[in-house]
Design brief:
Layout (H helix, E strand, L loop, with lengths): L2 H4 L19 E5 L2 E4 L5 E3 L1 H11 L5 H8 L3 H9 L13 E2 L6 E2 L6 H43 L1
Antiparallel strand pairs: 1-2, 2-3, 4-5
The structure holds zinc ion (2 copies).
């Protein structure tokens, strides 16, 4: 699976990858919402934050949403351009999923491909963590051994 590479430029909304509470992998639930697979902590990416805010405060401007959520106005404009935020639709032009070519109404990829992208990203994150832990363990072991050897040699 090489999908993550293809989707690399999709990861622009500061997707939470690791749980701030326990360090677990954050799993995509849909609509910018992510849940820790270990402790169920819920976090949102920029899209989720803005979406929640806009839903509660109908008719806000991009500037107001930016100030309230801390998300950059530029990012919000990108969302609007991609129609990730459905504001006054009614357009008759259909978009195509950038991955599979299915017709979609908003965004850049269809929900199926978005989920696939996130699953691949989560898997990559898990592997990265495993590798990191393995590397950390052996590194520490190595230096301890080195320290002991140093003392012995002295
Ligand atoms: Zn957690
Ligand atoms: Zn697709």
């Amino acid at each position: 699976m090489n999908h993550v590479k293809d989707f690399a430029d999709m990861d622009v909304y500061n997707r939470p990858k690791v749980c701030p509470e326990c360090g677990g992998v954050m799993v995509f639930k849909g609509c910018g919402e992510y849940r820790c697979e270990k402790c169920r902590y819920i976090a949102y990416d920029d899209y989720g934050k803005v979406r929640n805010y806009v839903e509660k405060h109908r008719g806000v401007t991009a500037a107001q949403a930016a100030e309230a959520t801390g998300v950059k106005q530029k990012t919000i404009r990108t969302m609007l351009k991609e129609s990730r935020l459905e504001i006054a639709d009614g357009s008759n032009s259909y978009l195509k999923c950038e991955m599979c070519g299915t017709q979609i109404r908003s965004g850049r990829v269809c929900p199926k491909c978005e989920t696939a992208f996130n699953r691949a990203l989560e898997e990559k994150e898990r592997q990265k963590r495993e590798k990191m832990m393995a590397g950390f363990g052996s590194e520490r072991g190595g230096s301890e051994e080195g320290a002991k050897r140093f003392i012995r040699d002295k």
